[in-house]
Amino acid sequence: MEISPDTKIIWSWGFVNLNLTIIFTWAIMAMIVLTAWMATRKLVVHPPLSRWQNIFEAIVTIMRNHIREIIGPDISRYMPFVGTLYLFIAVSNLLIVIPEYRPPTGSLSTTAALALCVFFAVPIYSIAAQGVGGYLKHYIEPSPIMLPMHIMGDLTRTLTLAVRLFGSIMSESMIAGALLAIIPFFLPVVMKLFGLLIGQIQAYIFAVLASIYIASAASSDRGRKQEEIPMAYRGGGHVLGK
Predict the structure, then answer these.
(1) Residue 79: CB partners within 8 Å, gap ≥ 6?
(2) Residues paired with residue 24 on neighbouring β-strands, in sequence order
(3) Angle between helices 51-71 and 79-94 (to 10 degrees)
(4) pLDDT band at 191 (very low <50, low <70, confident <90, very high)
(5) DSSP assigned state of 50
């Protein structure tokens, strides 16, 4: 049983390998871009709205409402980045119903890349909001002795994002594969449905955490923001992460 889509090599030339992770990743990105183009090519303000525009407006509204509940009303600067993260992860996990499909989020290289995007987005948004001095200042608050701890916290946070998403998707695929080999009838179908639910929850959690990390870094009141992070989203994700 394949644990990761990275192990399935489609084409190789020297040190360049084309695996299922790359193929499905680009296919999902192309699908999202094409769908977005179809939904926005004939935008209108007044009814009747096209079906594509209705669907996308509903998705954007849901994302905005959820992000607003976490970080407050000022979310316009975060929506493009966080929304893109959510859509990519959600669509990747939603397509598991297709035979022979392997979600790119089941690859540690993909989840690590997504986590690195959040890692670099945090200082970018923070510097844009507070300036370089304001961002660097938090590393020595409340005392310069906390500098190593703050750096370790940033690195640990990135690792947690990558491993949580990868572990959840990989474990679900392994369980479904094992059950399919043992009981090849109704139970695997139930596991697929369960996998769809878990995949959407993981997309939501990843987007929420990214929003919290970015907003707390961009806010001058970092300590209060960090204290407001729900316990279910902290640490290894033992409440909702699995």
Answers:
(1) 60, 63, 64, 67
(2) none
(3) 120
(4) low
(5) P
Cα 150 → chain centroid: 23
102: domain range?
A: 5-233
Q: Give domain status of residue 119, yes or no.
A: yes
DSSP letter at 49 equals P
> Would you say residue 76 lies in a domain?
yes
> What are the residues facing 11 on neighbouring strands?
18
Residues 162, 115 contacting (CB under 8 angstroms): yes
- Quote the pTM value: 0.73
Number of H helices, E strands in the chain: 7, 2
Given a contact cutoff of 8 angstroms between Cβ atoms, the answer to whether 211 and 71 are in contact is: yes
Q: Give 68-107 pLDDT, tens digit per residue.
A: 777 766 777 788 888 888 889 888 888 877 777 888 888 8
Distances (CA, A) of 17 to 11, 21, 232: 6, 11, 38
The letter for the amino acid at 132 is: V
Q: Could you tell me which residues are beta bridge partners of residue 16?
A: 13
CB-based burial label for 209 (10 Å; 0-12, 13-18, 19+): buried
Residue keyed to tokens 């992000």:
67
What total of structural domains would you count in the chain?
1
Determine the Cα–Cα distance for residues 182 and 160; give it in Å rounded to an integer.
Answer: 33
Closest CA to 169 of 213, 84, 105: 105
On whether residue 240 sits in a domain, the answer given is no
Considering the domain boundaries, does residue 176 fall inside one? yes
Rounded-to-integer distance, Cα 3 and Cα 98, Å: 17
Report CA 159 to chain centroid distance, whole Å: 13
